[in-house]
Amino acid sequence: DQLARAPYVPGVASALDVNASSLGLHLAPGASVHLLPNIAGYVGADHVAMMLATGMATKKGVVLALDIGTNTEVCLANHGRLTSLSCASGPAFEGAHIKHGMRAAKGAIERLRLIGGRVEYQTIGGAPPVGLCGSGILDSLAQLYQAGVVSANGRMRKHPLVREDSKGGREFVLVSEAEQVEGRADITFTQKDVRELQLAKGAMRTGIDVLLKENGLAAEKIERVIIAGAFGTYIDVANAMAIGMLPQLPLDRFRQVGNAAGMGAKLALISRTQRAEAQDLARRVGYIELATVPEFTKTFTQAMYLG
């Protein structure tokens, strides 16, 4: 009940062991289910599992870890001090609310470049294009911004490949009907798509900036950035930096690690020592409720600008 109301306190924060059969999981006689601890209402066991798998508790120096999804959890390790928060990055990077967005399936555009006014792309499985998955969506915005088609405030400008859509807004033609398999319509990137991504990347960058400020650090002090999650595995980090989603740092400071939360769950499954470590992690982490930060609105507004 209280999870739906501010300040969004979870009903249970500690780890739980539950009889598997009571949950309808008839795996083996006497089998139990272990639930890792929560930190706060929207920083849950998946974040603890990610920190467990990436060894955040033992990191030396300044390390930033992001688990990118509809809610992006961010943790900053500052010489052993751990601080975490959650930012509502929304489903845009997963293809939702994007005109031609889709999940990462066969035919999804996963890589895109704008070269000399011409669009070059790569699809999953080398199939004819049918839409844009998360990495292709990010590439589209970054390439249009770097080419000057989209301004820093997110406005789509005039361009030979920009046209008016059926609702009077502007859209950029990525794949024209003439290039398509017969019967398939154009694949476009719209002004509304730009706005959706500004909100998503703005939320994520706000979370990073708030953690840095809380720790009295400038972005250039970050020694390593760990990017987890399905979307985070496939993004072009240079393009993410180009639109301002990630801080401008040397590329060799970034490490994309895939499904770290899943790996943390596996570690907890096979090791009681790792379960104890997870409990200790949850107790150690300092939590920030992003919406209550005094300068949240100002920081978020600034973070929505591209570049």
Radius of gyration: 21 Å
Q: In whole angstroms, how far apart are the ends? A: 41 Å
Enumerate the strands of the largest sheet in spatial order, edge to edge or round the barrel: 13-12-3-4-5-14
Query: What helical percentage do the residues reach?
Result: 25-40%
Number of helices: 8
Q: Specify the structural class.
A: alpha/beta
The unreliable regions are: none
The rough form would be described as globular
Calculate the mean pLDDT score and round it: 94
Beta content comes to 15-25%
Question: What is the tally of beta strands?
Answer: 14
Summarize the structure.
With 307 residues, the chain is α/β, with parallel strands linked by helices. 29% of the residues lie in helices and 22% in strands.
Structural commentary:
The chain has 307 residues and is an alpha/beta fold. It has a 6-stranded mixed β-sheet with strand order 13-12-3-4-5-14, with helices on both faces. A 3-stranded mixed β-sheet has the order 7-6-8. Strands 9-10-11 form a 3-stranded antiparallel β-sheet. The longest helix is centred in the middle third of the chain and has 24 residues, at 191-214. 29% of the residues lie in helices and 22% in strands. Helix 1 (45-54) crosses helix 6, helix 3 packs across helix 8 (296-303) and helix 6 (260-270) packs across helix 7 (272-284).
